[in-house]
Amino acid sequence: MGATMRSPLSFPFVVFWGMWCALVAGCASPPPTPRGEVQGAAAAPAELAQSDVNRLATLAMQENLDSLYRLMEKLYRRNPAEWRKTSALGREHAMVQVRAAIALRQPWAPLQGQRDVAALALALAPEFADDRVAAFIHAVADMLITAHGGKTEFFLIDGLDAQHLYNAARNLEVAVWMLAQRRSAKGTPLLLADEINASERNLSYEREFGKVIARLDLLALVTTEKYRRAVIGYVQGLAGSTFLQFLPVR
Question: Rounded CA gap, 64 and 59, in Å?
Answer without folding.
Answer: 9
